[in-house]
Amino acid sequence: MLIDIAPPDYDIDLDLLYATADNLSGVPIYRAPVCLLHPEAARRLRASIALAHGIGCRLRVYDAFRPVEAQWRLWHAFPDPTYIADPRLGSNHTRGVAIDLTLVDAGGRPLDMGTGFDEMTERSHHGRTDLTADQQRNRALLLGVMSGAGWDHYASEWWHYQLPDAERYPLLADTAVGGRMM
Q1: Who contacts 123 (Cβ-Cβ below 8 Å, separation ≥6)?
Q2: Fewest CB within 10 A of the end CB: N or C in the chain?
């Protein structure tokens, strides 16, 4: 069972870009902007929210649970396993235990991370030293918030975090959530 992640129950900003054409495929992937997570991931998100508040920020979520059908659509749009998990192997998003997000300041402006969400280039990798000091600091802040709440990062995407034992959760199709997304 997955849990709905939305205000006011979760003090976050939602900007579910895969429900719009403003994503790497250029077309909406999801029929509806629904944000869902496995209960353990939802628990850790609450801890992340509290840590972000402690540094004067909020979290803006771009993606969470991604049905198998959506993973195939992304794979067809950008079949590079560095950035898009091969749907035959499974994505941690498709397990409901991964989240894509950023930090926003008190005015609701995203912190500058050096690249946009879903910029599938080496500049999006963690540990880049060719970014400005502020961009490196902002990525380190996000990494600290998420790591402090028990998430693992994905080295190729500054915005992607997942549960440490993600592979133990089953892959889920849209039917698992009542056909709400596709």
Answers
A1: 114, 115, 130, 131
A2: N
Which amino acids are annotated as binding site for Zn(2+), given as ranges? Answer: 93, 100, 160
3-state secondary structure of 132: coil
Please say whether the beta carbons of 13 and 60 come within 8 A.
yes
- E-strand spans in 36-118? 36-37, 58-63, 98-104
Can you give the pLDDT at residue 67? 98
Return the H-helix or E-strand segment holding 51.
helix 39-54
Q: What is the CB neighbour count within 10 angstroms for residue 138? A: 22
Structure tokens at 128: 């880049």
Question: pTM score, two decimals?
Answer: 0.97
Active-site amino acid positions: 157
Burial of 78 from C-beta contacts in 10 A (0-12 / 13-18 / 19+): middle
| Domain residue extents for the chain | 3-177
ω into residue 110 within 30 of 0, thus cis? Answer: no
Instruction: Give the tokens for residue 85.
Output: 């998990």
> What digits encode the pLDDT tens for the residues 88-120?
999 999 999 999 999 999 999 999 999 999 999
